[in-house]
Design goal:
Layout (H helix, E strand, L loop, with lengths): L1 E3 L18 H21 L4 H9 L18 H14 L1 H19 L7 H12 L3 E4 L17 E5 L2 E11 L7 E8 L6 E7 L5 E4 L13 E10 L6 E3 L8 H33 L13 H29 L2 E3 H26 L1 H4 L5 H9 L8 H12 L2
Parallel strand pairs: 2-5, 3-5
Antiparallel strand pairs: 1-10, 3-4, 4-8, 5-6, 6-9, 7-8
Helix pairs in contact: 1-3, 3-4, 3-6, 4-6, 6-7, 6-8, 6-10, 7-8, 8-10, 8-11
Length: about 400
Protein backbone atom coordinates (compact mmCIF):
# COMPACT_ATOMS: atom_id res chain seq x y z
CA UNK A 1 0.00 0.00 0.00
CA UNK A 2 1.36 3.40 -1.02
CA UNK A 3 0.51 6.43 1.08
CA UNK A 4 1.40 10.03 0.31
CA UNK A 5 1.24 12.65 3.03
CA UNK A 6 0.86 16.37 2.49
CA UNK A 7 4.15 17.24 4.15
CA UNK A 8 7.30 17.03 2.00
CA UNK A 9 9.21 15.16 4.73
CA UNK A 10 8.55 13.53 8.10
CA UNK A 11 8.23 16.05 10.90
CA UNK A 12 11.13 14.40 12.72
CA UNK A 13 13.58 14.48 9.81
CA UNK A 14 16.53 16.77 9.10
CA UNK A 15 17.27 17.98 5.57
CA UNK A 16 20.98 18.03 6.41
CA UNK A 17 22.57 15.25 8.48
CA UNK A 18 23.29 16.65 11.96
CA UNK A 19 26.57 16.49 13.81
CA UNK A 20 25.94 13.13 15.47
CA UNK A 21 26.36 11.27 12.17
CA UNK A 22 29.72 12.82 11.23
CA UNK A 23 32.44 10.40 10.20
CA UNK A 24 34.86 11.05 13.13
CA UNK A 25 32.21 10.26 15.75
CA UNK A 26 30.97 7.16 13.98
CA UNK A 27 34.47 5.95 13.12
CA UNK A 28 35.63 6.15 16.73
CA UNK A 29 32.62 4.20 17.96
CA UNK A 30 32.82 1.65 15.15
CA UNK A 31 36.51 1.01 15.83
CA UNK A 32 35.80 0.23 19.48
CA UNK A 33 32.81 -1.96 18.68
CA UNK A 34 34.69 -3.94 16.04
CA UNK A 35 37.42 -4.80 18.56
CA UNK A 36 34.83 -6.14 21.00
CA UNK A 37 32.56 -7.92 18.50
CA UNK A 38 34.24 -11.34 18.62
CA UNK A 39 34.30 -11.29 22.43
CA UNK A 40 30.59 -10.51 22.70
CA UNK A 41 29.76 -13.07 20.02
CA UNK A 42 31.64 -15.77 21.89
CA UNK A 43 30.14 -14.97 25.30
CA UNK A 44 26.62 -14.23 24.09
CA UNK A 45 26.46 -11.36 26.58
CA UNK A 46 24.83 -8.04 25.82
CA UNK A 47 27.35 -5.45 24.54
CA UNK A 48 27.03 -3.26 27.61
CA UNK A 49 30.32 -1.43 26.96
CA UNK A 50 29.08 -0.51 23.50
CA UNK A 51 25.75 0.70 24.85
CA UNK A 52 27.60 2.79 27.43
CA UNK A 53 29.66 4.36 24.65
CA UNK A 54 26.50 5.15 22.65
CA UNK A 55 24.97 6.66 25.77
CA UNK A 56 28.04 8.81 26.44
CA UNK A 57 28.11 9.99 22.82
CA UNK A 58 24.47 11.08 23.08
CA UNK A 59 23.30 8.78 20.32
CA UNK A 60 20.42 7.27 22.27
CA UNK A 61 18.55 10.58 22.14
CA UNK A 62 18.84 11.02 18.39
CA UNK A 63 15.30 9.91 17.50
CA UNK A 64 13.59 12.04 20.16
CA UNK A 65 11.72 14.98 18.57
CA UNK A 66 13.50 18.31 18.84
CA UNK A 67 10.53 19.68 20.79
CA UNK A 68 11.50 17.29 23.59
CA UNK A 69 15.23 18.02 23.46
CA UNK A 70 16.32 15.32 21.01
CA UNK A 71 17.91 15.47 17.56
CA UNK A 72 14.76 14.58 15.63
CA UNK A 73 16.52 11.98 13.50
CA UNK A 74 14.67 10.85 10.40
CA UNK A 75 15.02 7.70 8.32
CA UNK A 76 18.17 8.97 6.60
CA UNK A 77 20.02 9.39 9.89
CA UNK A 78 18.73 6.15 11.40
CA UNK A 79 19.78 4.17 8.33
CA UNK A 80 23.19 5.85 8.29
CA UNK A 81 23.89 5.06 11.94
CA UNK A 82 22.53 1.50 11.72
CA UNK A 83 24.60 0.68 8.64
CA UNK A 84 27.81 2.08 10.13
CA UNK A 85 27.43 0.40 13.52
CA UNK A 86 26.40 -2.90 11.88
CA UNK A 87 29.71 -3.00 10.03
CA UNK A 88 31.41 -3.09 13.42
CA UNK A 89 28.96 -5.06 15.58
CA UNK A 90 25.49 -5.88 14.20
CA UNK A 91 24.13 -6.96 17.60
CA UNK A 92 24.75 -3.46 18.93
CA UNK A 93 23.26 -2.01 15.76
CA UNK A 94 20.06 -4.03 16.16
CA UNK A 95 19.57 -2.95 19.77
CA UNK A 96 20.11 0.67 18.76
CA UNK A 97 17.90 0.47 15.67
CA UNK A 98 14.99 -1.01 17.62
CA UNK A 99 15.45 1.71 20.26
CA UNK A 100 15.25 4.36 17.55
CA UNK A 101 12.23 2.87 15.78
CA UNK A 102 10.19 2.51 18.96
CA UNK A 103 11.20 5.97 20.14
CA UNK A 104 9.80 7.29 16.86
CA UNK A 105 6.68 5.14 17.25
CA UNK A 106 6.09 6.53 20.73
CA UNK A 107 6.68 10.07 19.48
CA UNK A 108 4.27 9.82 16.55
CA UNK A 109 1.39 8.13 18.35
CA UNK A 110 -1.30 10.57 19.56
CA UNK A 111 -2.38 8.00 22.17
CA UNK A 112 0.51 8.77 24.53
CA UNK A 113 0.15 12.03 26.43
CA UNK A 114 2.22 14.23 28.71
CA UNK A 115 3.51 13.97 31.37
CA UNK A 116 4.28 10.34 30.46
CA UNK A 117 5.66 11.28 27.05
CA UNK A 118 7.98 13.89 28.58
CA UNK A 119 9.06 11.49 31.32
CA UNK A 120 10.12 8.82 28.85
CA UNK A 121 11.97 11.20 26.54
CA UNK A 122 13.68 12.90 29.46
CA UNK A 123 14.88 9.53 30.78
CA UNK A 124 16.46 8.78 27.39
CA UNK A 125 18.03 12.21 27.00
CA UNK A 126 19.30 12.67 30.54
CA UNK A 127 19.91 9.11 31.74
CA UNK A 128 20.48 7.24 28.50
CA UNK A 129 17.44 5.00 28.95
CA UNK A 130 16.94 2.28 26.36
CA UNK A 131 13.62 1.04 24.95
CA UNK A 132 12.26 -1.60 22.62
CA UNK A 133 8.94 -3.08 21.55
CA UNK A 134 8.22 -6.67 22.64
CA UNK A 135 5.72 -8.43 20.38
CA UNK A 136 6.62 -12.04 19.65
CA UNK A 137 5.18 -14.80 21.83
CA UNK A 138 5.88 -18.53 22.25
CA UNK A 139 2.50 -19.61 20.86
CA UNK A 140 1.52 -16.71 18.63
CA UNK A 141 4.85 -16.12 16.95
CA UNK A 142 5.12 -12.74 15.27
CA UNK A 143 1.91 -10.62 15.26
CA UNK A 144 2.83 -9.55 11.71
CA UNK A 145 1.12 -12.76 10.58
CA UNK A 146 -2.08 -12.00 12.51
CA UNK A 147 -3.72 -13.11 15.73
CA UNK A 148 -4.27 -11.67 19.19
CA UNK A 149 -1.55 -11.77 21.83
CA UNK A 150 -1.88 -14.01 24.87
CA UNK A 151 -0.23 -11.30 27.00
CA UNK A 152 -3.17 -9.78 28.85
CA UNK A 153 -4.05 -6.72 30.92
CA UNK A 154 -6.61 -7.42 33.64
CA UNK A 155 -8.10 -4.99 36.15
CA UNK A 156 -8.08 -6.49 39.64
CA UNK A 157 -9.31 -4.53 42.67
CA UNK A 158 -8.89 -1.28 40.79
CA UNK A 159 -5.31 -2.07 39.69
CA UNK A 160 -4.28 -2.91 36.11
CA UNK A 161 -2.03 -5.96 35.94
CA UNK A 162 -0.08 -7.35 32.99
CA UNK A 163 0.69 -11.06 32.57
CA UNK A 164 2.30 -12.97 29.73
CA UNK A 165 5.61 -13.73 28.09
CA UNK A 166 7.55 -12.34 25.13
CA UNK A 167 10.34 -14.09 23.25
CA UNK A 168 13.08 -12.62 21.02
CA UNK A 169 13.14 -9.53 23.27
CA UNK A 170 16.17 -7.74 21.89
CA UNK A 171 18.05 -5.79 24.53
CA UNK A 172 16.20 -7.57 27.38
CA UNK A 173 18.07 -6.80 30.60
CA UNK A 174 19.55 -3.57 29.21
CA UNK A 175 16.09 -2.09 28.62
CA UNK A 176 14.65 0.66 30.80
CA UNK A 177 11.30 0.72 29.00
CA UNK A 178 9.39 -1.88 27.00
CA UNK A 179 6.41 -1.31 24.76
CA UNK A 180 4.60 -4.62 25.18
CA UNK A 181 2.01 -5.85 22.67
CA UNK A 182 -0.98 -6.95 24.74
CA UNK A 183 -4.76 -7.17 24.92
CA UNK A 184 -7.41 -6.66 27.55
CA UNK A 185 -9.66 -9.42 28.91
CA UNK A 186 -12.81 -7.49 27.97
CA UNK A 187 -15.63 -9.01 25.90
CA UNK A 188 -14.45 -6.82 23.03
CA UNK A 189 -10.72 -6.75 23.75
CA UNK A 190 -8.58 -3.74 23.10
CA UNK A 191 -5.18 -4.47 21.60
CA UNK A 192 -1.97 -2.50 21.36
CA UNK A 193 1.06 -1.24 23.22
CA UNK A 194 1.43 -1.13 26.99
CA UNK A 195 4.38 0.84 28.37
CA UNK A 196 6.24 -1.15 31.02
CA UNK A 197 9.11 0.20 33.16
CA UNK A 198 11.38 -2.85 33.23
CA UNK A 199 12.36 -2.38 36.90
CA UNK A 200 8.83 -3.11 38.16
CA UNK A 201 8.13 -6.11 40.43
CA UNK A 202 6.91 -9.08 38.43
CA UNK A 203 9.17 -8.47 35.41
CA UNK A 204 11.50 -11.43 34.99
CA UNK A 205 14.04 -12.29 32.30
CA UNK A 206 14.76 -15.88 31.34
CA UNK A 207 18.04 -16.24 29.46
CA UNK A 208 16.80 -18.28 26.53
CA UNK A 209 18.67 -16.64 23.63
CA UNK A 210 21.36 -19.00 22.28
CA UNK A 211 21.26 -18.60 18.51
CA UNK A 212 23.80 -19.23 15.79
CA UNK A 213 23.98 -15.54 14.86
CA UNK A 214 23.36 -12.09 16.35
CA UNK A 215 24.34 -13.73 19.60
CA UNK A 216 24.96 -10.54 21.57
CA UNK A 217 21.49 -9.04 21.12
CA UNK A 218 20.34 -10.51 24.44
CA UNK A 219 17.01 -11.43 22.84
CA UNK A 220 15.86 -13.41 25.85
CA UNK A 221 12.37 -14.28 27.09
CA UNK A 222 10.69 -11.64 29.24
CA UNK A 223 7.95 -12.81 31.61
CA UNK A 224 5.37 -10.44 33.09
CA UNK A 225 3.77 -11.86 36.23
CA UNK A 226 0.89 -9.66 37.43
CA UNK A 227 2.87 -6.48 36.83
CA UNK A 228 0.95 -3.51 38.25
CA UNK A 229 0.75 -0.57 35.84
CA UNK A 230 -0.60 2.99 36.09
CA UNK A 231 -3.59 3.65 33.85
CA UNK A 232 -1.76 6.12 31.62
CA UNK A 233 0.71 3.35 30.71
CA UNK A 234 -2.17 1.56 28.96
CA UNK A 235 -2.99 4.42 26.58
CA UNK A 236 -1.75 2.43 23.60
CA UNK A 237 -4.57 -0.11 23.87
CA UNK A 238 -7.25 0.50 21.22
CA UNK A 239 -9.80 -1.26 19.03
CA UNK A 240 -8.08 -4.03 17.00
CA UNK A 241 -9.24 -2.33 13.80
CA UNK A 242 -7.47 0.92 14.66
CA UNK A 243 -4.82 1.81 12.09
CA UNK A 244 -2.93 5.04 12.84
CA UNK A 245 -2.11 7.31 9.92
CA UNK A 246 1.60 7.01 10.65
CA UNK A 247 1.62 3.19 10.43
CA UNK A 248 2.69 3.20 6.78
CA UNK A 249 5.65 5.44 7.59
CA UNK A 250 6.78 3.24 10.50
CA UNK A 251 6.45 0.10 8.39
CA UNK A 252 8.75 1.60 5.77
CA UNK A 253 11.25 2.76 8.38
CA UNK A 254 11.37 -0.68 9.98
CA UNK A 255 11.85 -2.61 6.74
CA UNK A 256 14.47 -0.26 5.30
CA UNK A 257 16.42 -0.01 8.57
CA UNK A 258 16.56 -3.80 8.96
CA UNK A 259 17.74 -4.13 5.36
CA UNK A 260 20.44 -1.51 5.94
CA UNK A 261 21.63 -3.40 9.03
CA UNK A 262 22.24 -6.67 7.18
CA UNK A 263 23.77 -4.78 4.29
CA UNK A 264 26.24 -3.37 6.82
CA UNK A 265 27.27 -6.91 7.73
CA UNK A 266 27.92 -7.65 4.05
CA UNK A 267 30.07 -4.52 3.79
CA UNK A 268 32.15 -5.74 6.73
CA UNK A 269 32.56 -9.12 5.07
CA UNK A 270 33.63 -7.45 1.82
CA UNK A 271 36.19 -5.31 3.65
CA UNK A 272 37.73 -8.37 5.34
CA UNK A 273 37.68 -10.40 2.12
CA UNK A 274 39.47 -7.79 0.00
CA UNK A 275 42.07 -7.37 2.74
CA UNK A 276 42.60 -11.12 2.79
CA UNK A 277 43.07 -11.19 -1.00
CA UNK A 278 45.75 -8.53 -0.73
CA UNK A 279 47.54 -10.22 2.17
CA UNK A 280 47.39 -13.84 1.02
CA UNK A 281 50.43 -14.77 -1.12
CA UNK A 282 50.47 -18.54 -1.86
CA UNK A 283 53.96 -19.98 -2.21
CA UNK A 284 53.18 -21.52 -5.59
CA UNK A 285 51.88 -18.21 -6.92
CA UNK A 286 54.38 -15.72 -5.55
CA UNK A 287 51.95 -12.83 -5.64
CA UNK A 288 48.73 -11.85 -3.83
CA UNK A 289 45.42 -13.48 -4.65
CA UNK A 290 44.15 -9.99 -5.46
CA UNK A 291 46.14 -10.09 -8.71
CA UNK A 292 44.19 -13.06 -10.09
CA UNK A 293 41.40 -12.25 -12.58
CA UNK A 294 38.95 -14.71 -11.03
CA UNK A 295 39.15 -12.96 -7.66
CA UNK A 296 38.97 -9.56 -9.32
CA UNK A 297 35.78 -10.63 -11.11
CA UNK A 298 34.37 -12.01 -7.87
CA UNK A 299 34.91 -8.72 -6.07
CA UNK A 300 33.18 -7.05 -9.00
CA UNK A 301 30.18 -9.34 -8.48
CA UNK A 302 30.15 -8.51 -4.77
CA UNK A 303 30.32 -4.79 -5.44
CA UNK A 304 27.45 -5.06 -7.93
CA UNK A 305 25.28 -6.64 -5.24
CA UNK A 306 26.24 -3.98 -2.69
CA UNK A 307 25.61 -1.22 -5.24
CA UNK A 308 22.13 -2.62 -5.83
CA UNK A 309 21.48 -2.59 -2.10
CA UNK A 310 22.69 0.99 -1.72
CA UNK A 311 20.53 2.14 -4.62
CA UNK A 312 17.43 0.50 -3.15
CA UNK A 313 17.98 1.92 0.33
CA UNK A 314 18.74 5.38 -1.09
CA UNK A 315 15.56 5.24 -3.15
CA UNK A 316 13.48 4.37 -0.10
CA UNK A 317 15.08 7.18 1.91
CA UNK A 318 14.44 9.61 -0.93
CA UNK A 319 10.78 8.64 -1.14
CA UNK A 320 10.48 9.08 2.61
CA UNK A 321 11.80 12.64 2.30
CA UNK A 322 9.09 13.28 -0.30
CA UNK A 323 6.40 11.95 2.04
CA UNK A 324 5.82 8.76 0.01
CA UNK A 325 5.49 5.60 2.11
CA UNK A 326 5.27 2.55 -0.15
CA UNK A 327 5.11 -0.45 2.17
CA UNK A 328 5.35 -3.11 -0.52
CA UNK A 329 8.46 -1.61 -2.09
CA UNK A 330 10.03 -1.05 1.34
CA UNK A 331 9.46 -4.71 2.21
CA UNK A 332 10.93 -5.75 -1.14
CA UNK A 333 13.92 -3.53 -0.37
CA UNK A 334 14.43 -5.40 2.90
CA UNK A 335 14.04 -8.76 1.13
CA UNK A 336 16.43 -7.96 -1.73
CA UNK A 337 19.09 -6.27 0.40
CA UNK A 338 19.06 -9.16 2.86
CA UNK A 339 19.31 -11.85 0.17
CA UNK A 340 22.05 -9.89 -1.60
CA UNK A 341 23.93 -9.47 1.68
CA UNK A 342 23.81 -13.22 2.31
CA UNK A 343 25.01 -13.88 -1.23
CA UNK A 344 27.94 -11.50 -0.74
CA UNK A 345 29.17 -13.40 2.31
CA UNK A 346 28.53 -16.79 0.72
CA UNK A 347 30.57 -15.84 -2.34
CA UNK A 348 33.50 -14.79 -0.17
CA UNK A 349 33.30 -18.02 1.84
CA UNK A 350 33.13 -20.22 -1.22
CA UNK A 351 36.11 -18.47 -2.78
CA UNK A 352 38.58 -19.03 0.07
CA UNK A 353 37.29 -22.21 1.69
CA UNK A 354 38.49 -23.27 5.13
CA UNK A 355 40.16 -19.99 6.17
CA UNK A 356 36.77 -18.30 5.89
CA UNK A 357 35.18 -20.79 8.26
CA UNK A 358 37.87 -20.48 10.91
CA UNK A 359 36.80 -18.87 14.17
CA UNK A 360 40.14 -17.04 14.10
CA UNK A 361 38.71 -14.94 11.27
CA UNK A 362 35.58 -12.73 11.33
CA UNK A 363 34.07 -14.02 8.07
CA UNK A 364 32.34 -17.00 9.68
CA UNK A 365 30.82 -14.65 12.26
CA UNK A 366 29.61 -12.33 9.50
CA UNK A 367 28.01 -15.34 7.82
CA UNK A 368 26.21 -16.48 10.96
CA UNK A 369 25.01 -12.94 11.60
CA UNK A 370 23.83 -12.17 8.08
CA UNK A 371 21.74 -15.35 7.91
CA UNK A 372 19.50 -13.91 10.64
CA UNK A 373 18.21 -11.40 8.11
CA UNK A 374 16.00 -14.08 6.58
CA UNK A 375 14.00 -14.60 9.77
CA UNK A 376 13.69 -10.91 10.53
CA UNK A 377 10.23 -9.42 9.97
CA UNK A 378 9.15 -8.82 7.25
CA UNK A 379 10.01 -12.34 6.14
CA UNK A 380 10.55 -13.29 2.54
CA UNK A 381 7.45 -15.41 1.92
CA UNK A 382 5.15 -12.69 3.24
CA UNK A 383 6.96 -9.99 1.29
CA UNK A 384 6.70 -11.83 -2.02
CA UNK A 385 3.07 -12.80 -1.44
CA UNK A 386 2.04 -9.20 -0.75
CA UNK A 387 4.05 -7.90 -3.70
CA UNK A 388 2.48 -10.48 -6.02
CA UNK A 389 -1.02 -9.70 -4.84
CA UNK A 390 -0.42 -6.00 -5.41
CA UNK A 391 0.91 -6.63 -8.91
CA UNK A 392 -2.05 -8.84 -9.79
CA UNK A 393 -4.61 -6.44 -8.41
Amino acid sequence: MKTRLKSSAPATAHTVPPAFVTAPVMDRLAARFAKRAAQYDKSGNLPLQNLADLRKAGLLACAIPTAYGGDGAGLQEIVHITDRIAQADPSTALILAMHYLHTVSFALSPLWQDPLRSTLFRSIEQKGALMNGLRVEPELGTPARGGLPATTVVRKNGVYRLSGAKIFSTGSYALTWALVWARTDEDNPRVGWVLVPMHLPGVKIEKSWDHIGMRATGSHTVVFDNVALPEDHLAGLTDPAYMPDYAARLGVWHAVTVGALYNGIAKAARAWFTGYLHDRVPANLGRPLSTLPRFQSLVGEIDALLLTNSALVDRAVGQDREGIFDGVNADLTKYITTENAITVVEKALAAIGNPGLSRHQPLERHYRNVLCGRVHTPQGDSVLLHAGRKALG
